[in-house]
Amino acid sequence: MRIHVLGICGTFMGGIAALARELGVEVEGSDANVYPPMSDQLRALGIALQEGWSAEHLQSKPDLVVVGNALSRGNPSVEYMLDTGLPYTSGPQWLGENVLRGREVLAVAGTHGKTTTTSLLAHLLDHASKEEAGLAPGFLIGGVPGNFGVSARLGKGKGEQGTGTAQVGPIAPASSLPVPGSRSLFVIEADEYDTAFFDKRSKFVHYRPRIAILNNLEYDHADIFPDVAAIQRQFHHLVRTVPGNGRLIVNAEDIRLAEVLAMGCWTPMETFGIDTGDWRARMIEPDGSAFLVTHKRKTIGEVRWSLLGRHNVMNALAALAAADAAGVDPRALLPAFATFESVKRRMESLGEVNRVHVYDDFAHHPTAIATTLAGLRAKVGKARILVALEPRSNSMRAGAHAEALAPSLADADAVVLLRRPELPWDAQAAVDALGGRGSAAASVDALLAALRLEARPGDHVVFMSNGGFENAPRRFLDVLRAG
Known about the structure:
The chain is α/β, with parallel strands linked by helices and 483 residues long.
C-alpha cells in the first residue's frame, strides 16, 4: 500500500507518517512548507516530501490519502482528491484503526500540559520496560521529547516479534490484533482540536483509551469552539469511550472537569492535585524541582528533576497515576524523573551569552504563560525576566485572550509584544495594561533590537510563541554574541 499524507510536516501528521513507515507502508507526503525538524526526520525515514498543495502531487493515485486538519475545502489537493474519488481518511481515524486498535491505549487530554505529560508518561513506561523486558511503549507526541528524539514509534509488547502488529487498511483484521492483556502499550497525546474538514469531532474520540488523563480544561481554540461548554461536550465524548475496566485520571482542582464528569461517568476514577485528590504533592523546593508524592495519604517517595513550576508538578502526578493504573509500581518509577528530558520548546534553555539566559517556550494561552513564568520566577528569585511574545495561535490572533494577556505576564519585568499589522484586536491596549513594563514591535527585527537595548547581565529572556517566531530566540543569541 502507498499512502500520501497531506500536511505531513505538522508534528502529529509527521508522526502518523513515521508510524506508517514503521509498519512497512510506502509513504509520501506534501505540505505548504516543508521545514525542519520534521522534514529532516521524515527524509531520514525515506519518505518523499513535496512542497505546496498542487494537485500534481496526487496524480500518481496513492491507495489512500491521509488528510491533516490544517486543510479545508478549496485547497487544490483536497479538491483534486474529491473530484477524482481518491480514497481518503483523517490522521486520527487512520491511527485509531491501524495502530491503536487492540492495544492498551493511554491518552493524555487537557488544554495545557498534554505534550509534557505524554512525553513523561512514555518515559516512565519506557523506564519500567527495562525491568519488564519487552514492554517498550509506543507513542505519538505533539513534540519531540528529549529522551526519544522522535515524535512517534510503534513500540513493542510482550510476546510480539516485531515493532507492531496492526495491518494497514481501512480496518485491521481481528486476527492481527494483540491478545488482550499482552501489554502492548501506546501513549497518545489526545488533542481536542477537530479531526479534519470532513470530521468536526475532536481528534481524541478516535483513540478509545483504557486509561485517560484529564489534565485541565479551559476555553481555547476560539476558531472552532464558541464557548467552554462546547469543549466540555467534546471531553465528555472522550469520557464515554473509556471502558468500565479502565481508569480516568482527573485533575481534582479543575471545576470544569468536575462539570464534565457530572454529565455521566462509567469508569473508576482517581484524582490528583497539590493539596487535594488521591495523588498529592508536597513541595520540597518552591520552584517544583523537588517534591514528595503521596497516594491516598501513603508516602510514595521524593521526585527530583529538572522541570520547574506547579503546573509541571501536576503533570508529574498525572503521569505517575496513569503509570500506576497500567500496573507499574510508582515507587520504582521515581528515579526515572531525574533522567527525564523535556520536550523541545517547553522552557527550553538555548544558551547564555554575557550572563543573559535565553529560553524558547511554546506557551500561547494566558494560563500557560502565567504558570510558566511563575515557575521561572520561583527559580531565579529577584533576577529580571524579559518576555518576547508572539500572539500567533488562532485564539490569540482572534483576540479571545486579549483581556487576560497582561495579567498573565505579572511575573515579567519587561515585555515586548510582536504586534503584526494583521492582528484584528487592539494590541496596544494590552501593552498599556502592562504600564511601564510593556512595549510593542511591528516586526521581529524591531523586537530583537528592543530586547537588545533592554537586556543586561543576569537577565532571563523568554521567547513565547506556538509558531516559528522567525527563529527569533536563536537570532537573539546571535545578536548578543555580536555585542
